[in-house]
Every structure is written in C-alpha cells, then in structure tokens.
Amino acid sequence: MEHHPAAAWLTEAASSAVQQHGSGNLLRVVLIMMVLGCVLTAWFLLRGYKRKDD
Question: Which of 8, 26, 29, 44 falls 20 to 30 Å from 36 in CA-CA distance?
Fold first, then answer.
C-alpha cells in the first residue's frame, strides 16, 4: 500500500484531536462533514430536475 502524505497528516491530526480533547470533538467534526456532504450531494443531484420553460 502506498504512503500518501495527505493521509498521514489527516491521521496525525485525528489522533492528536483524540488525545487532547477526547473522541467527542472528532465525532462532532465527522458528523458535520457528513451532513455537509449529504447536503451538497442532494443539491447536485436535485438541480438536474429543474426544468427550464422557454
């Protein structure tokens, strides 16, 4: 498996957050990112259903 510097940075940041503040903040960030991802995905998919009547 290849080593990606961005993935290493993300893993290090996550483990640092867990050590300093517990898992509550990490879980909060993950949940917020999931909600934002769902909203953006819904917007992207639903914008195609808009009809333009000329």
Answer: 8
Asked if 38 and 29 count as a contact pair (C-beta separation under 8 A), the reply is: no
Q: What is the DSSP string of 25-49?
A: HHHHHHHHHHHHHHHHHHHHHHGGG
Contact 39, 31 (CB under 8 A): no
Contacts of 41 (CB under 8 A, 6+ apart): none
38 compared with 49, residue with greater pLDDT: 38
> Which residue bears the tokens 């639903």?
46
This prediction has a pTM of 0.51
